[in-house]
Specification:
Oligomer: single chain
Number of helices: 32
Distance between the termini: 74 Å
Strand order of the largest sheet: 3-4-6-5-7-8-11-12-13-14-15
Strand content: 5-15%
Structural class: alpha/beta
Length: about 750
């Protein structure tokens, strides 16, 4: 509101002498607003430091308790990995169901694997609106894979994989009558560990979900994803070995935490603290709950961190199937994964951008036909803005993406092999077949191609520079292991390692602002007095607005610093590793860097396609009535390229209402969809003409066609022109007289005898 002056004629006119300023006009009650803001400001300051004191105390208490997982759910330890033949500091927890949401023993169990990347376990179940909370609400038996602060002395990544395999075996043993194998979720680092295990022991798994998980480490968008350049600019993996040697064979997780924090200096240095300060009356509990998890630092063995950095972060060996066991007898071949793979990534994630989460697909497969030849189903879902941690802890993501994915897991498990993008839409009151959704969201699966994945980035030409990084890192690691590592290990001990960990800045700040510091102890009493006499300032206070404006300016300044720093790092990286001179020094030619020429396993891939074609060709003219109905359903929808949730729900309803003696099992339905898709892709004309052999008898043909027609119309309430045309073709082949082609959705039959 413009400043007003009272004139002698009692009319109100705006003042013309007040200079403009960015904070609006000066208030009439300038002094009163200044006093009010000053009182509120010092009260917030005192309360802020009291919260920091509480954070320090929680950190110390959490360490004293052994840093248990920060879950809000009760649990029992089912298997302790430290007691296994090859011990690992992991454990399988069974989440206790609540009285409001009892567990249904016949439902598919859910297993959540949390990331071991510097922090402790618990992010996947730190809220009621979380992955575990959603599973509990749905009545699924729920399990959680946790880890302890210190690794076992002989522990390696293989030890962890063996322990997790034992956990999955135990879950399967506990649920022999479940509707399917466990649905396993891997968060961040837990995702690539899950993918490795699913390739080595595919028989243990149902569908798997990789949430914010980096798998293709060299991928990214130039100018946007600078974290992938760190390995090259630091000279490779030798620094991880150096830090482990200083830690007497143990790598302190605080280094990983600091790497994450360095990616967003404005949040680390300012925004997080200011958000607490500005919302001191409502924010403390949420802040303390998060900091309890964020400030729990866990260690890795030297062999573990070296394996991770050398094979994944820098070596990028996972998607090229180059990872082998220590004895050389086992190769991690991602083609062996038999379960549907679901990938959830976000464009707001600066740790695992979508190209890093998805480019393993074109690394493995040249086309969607090749994905189908391997009987593989891949579904990905992209969020527009949520950050890395928001993928696991955001209530909005939990209530939308995670809920829909879990509710649709049986649909995903039965999807025909191929590549799909999951699209989640809000429902509308006038939406057809609304009763077949959960009432809030509708999930669809749209068919995609390898080109769609590659289009998410800016090409893969820049990834060839990382081949030079990989070779340089191997040279530097060899030099360190030979000359420097023995000296560092000789001068390190458990005492020096302990004090090095204690003096880490992220730990020191928690010690300083806790009751260990006598200066902080009086804050508790003063803060209680302030809370009783709290005088929050009005949001309209001019000084309060100035404070927020200054905070925004600080954030912009730090963001600009981040952008300049990242741009400088990218230019420096390219100036070094894009140089043909550096490539030649480490023994790489242009041909090697570009990866030209056929792959060594191309003949195997072609042979697999040929054998698949021969196998399914034998099924063209033989099968069950279920095969015939599924073939009709897939044939009529060949032009839509979308698989809707509603027809799938209707199929489930038909099956549940069918008499038990003719009711197909879920596995039979799943295999029928896979088999019939291959047959239609192999020879659509021959497949359709063979339908009379699969559906003998006019009564059976009428019944099958009626069921499929109702299922096909569930999405839009009626058939489109393409569907009508294909149904007429099927009626002609089956010898059924056309009763009309209105295609309107009719009342759902009570039974489905097929």
């Amino acid at each position: 509101m413009a400043k007003e002056t009272r004139c002698s004629d009692s009319t109100v006119k705006p003042s013309s002498g007040t200079p403009k300023n960015p904070f609006g006009p000066w208030p009439m009650d300038f002094g009163a607003q200044a006093i009010s803001y000053w009182i509120d400001s010092w009260q917030r300051s005192l309360l802020f430091w009291d919260v920091m004191r509480q954070r320090g105390n929680i950190f110390l208490e959490h360490e004293k308790e052994g840093q248990p997982p920060t879950l809000v759910f009760g649990y029992d330890i089912v298997v302790d990995g430290r007691t296994l033949e090859d011990p690992a500091n992991y454990a399988l927890l069974r989440i206790k169901p609540s009285a409001e949401h009892p567990t249904d023993p016949k439902k598919r169990p859910i297993v959540v694997i949390d990331p071991r990347a510097g922090h402790g376990p618990g992010i996947g179940g730190s809220k009621m609106a979380s992955e575990i909370g959603i599973a509990m609400r749905a009545g699924n038996p729920c399990y959680f894979v946790m880890f302890f602060p210190k690794p076992c002395p002989t522990q390696t990544i293989e030890s962890v994989a063996r322990a997790e395999a034992e956990f999955l075996k135990k879950v399967n043993e506990l649920h022999p009558d479940a509707e399917g194998k466990p649905f396993v979720i891997g968060n961040c680092q837990g995702g690539w560990a899950l993918l490795i295990l699913a390739a080595v022991a595919p028989e243990l798994f149902g569908p798997i979900l990789l949430a914010g998980s980096p798998v293709s480490y060299w991928a990214g968008v130039e100018g946007k994803n600078p974290m992938r350049y760190s390995g090259g600019l630091l000279g490779g993996s030798w620094l991880s070995s150096f830090a482990s040697d200083l830690g007497n064979g143990t790598y302190d997780g605080t280094y990983l935490v600091q790497n994450f924090e360095n990616q967003n200096p404005s949040n680390t240095l300012w925004t997080k603290q200011y958000n607490l300060y500005s919302k001191i009356d409502t924010e403390p509990q949420r802040f303390l709950d998060f900091e309890k998890w964020w400030g729990g630092y866990f260690s890795l063995n030297k062999k573990e961190i070296e394996w991770i950095v050398q094979n994944l972060f820098i070596g990028n060996r996972l998607t090229s199937n180059e990872i082998r066991s220590a004895d050389g007898k086992t190769t991690v071949n991602l083609y062996n994964v038999r379960s549907p793979i679901v990938v959830f990534a976000s464009w707001g994630d600066n740790i695992t951008p979508p190209p890093q989460a998805l480019n393993w697909i074109p690394d493995l497969y040249d086309s969607v036909d090749e994905i189908r030849a391997h009987d593989q189903t891949i579904v990905y879902c992209l969020h527009n803005a949520i950050g890395h941690l928001g993928i696991f802890v955001s209530a909005k993501v939990a209530d939308r993406e995670h809920t829909e994915m879990m509710n649709a897991i049986d649909i995903i498990d039965a999807l025909p092999p191929g590549l799909y993008e999951a699209i989640i839409e809000d429902t509308r009151p006038d939406m057809p077949s609304l009763e077949l959704t959960d009432g809030r969201y509708l999930i669809k699966f749209e068919m995609r191609t390898i080109e769609d994945i590659l289009a998410l980035g800016d090409g893969r030409e820049h990834e060839r520079h990382f081949e030079v990084v990989k070779r340089s890192a191997e040279v530097n690691q060899g030099l360190y292991d030979t000359f420097l590592s023995p000296l560092v290990r000789a001068t390190s001990s458990e005492i020096t390692a302990h004090w090095l960990r204690m003096l880490q800045p992220v730990r020191v700040q928690r010690y300083m602002f806790s009751d260990m510091n006598p200066v902080m102890r009086p804050l508790k009493t003063f803060a209680q007095i302030v809370r009783e006499q709290r005088q929050p300032v009005s949001p309209d206070n001019a000084f309060h607005k100035l404070e927020k404006l200054m905070s925004d300016r600080i954030t912009v300044l730090l963001d600009n610093y981040r952008d300049l720093h990242n741009a400088w790092c990218e230019r420096l990286f390219k100036s070094i590793y894009a140089s043909p001179w550096v490539a030649a020094m480490v023994g790489l030619t242009e041909e090697t860097r570009r990866g030209k020429g056929p792959r060594p396993d191309d003949w195997l891939r072609n042979e697999l396609k040929r054998l698949k074609a021969l196998e399914h060709e034998s099924y063209i003219e033989r099968g069950t009535p279920l095969d015939g109905a599924v073939r009709i359903l897939l044939y009529q929808g060949r032009d839509t390229k979308v698989i809707d949730e509603r027809p799938s729900r209707l199929i489930q309803r038909f099956i549940s209402e069918a008499p038990s003696d003719v009711r197909p099992t879920f596995d039979q339905l799943k295999q029928a969809f896979k088999r019939q898709l291959f047959i239609l892709l192999l020879d659509e004309e021959k497949a359709v003409n063979a339908l009379p052999r699969l559906l003998p008898g006019m009564e059976l043909r009428h019944k099958a066609l009626e069921l499929v027609r109702r299922i096909a119309a569930a999405s839009d309430g009626k058939l489109n022109d393409s569907q009508k045309k294909r149904f007429r073709r099927i009626e002609e082949i089956l010898g059924i007289a056309t009763e009309g082609d209105s295609g309107t959705q009719k009342e759902t039959p009570r039974t489905a005898n097929m």
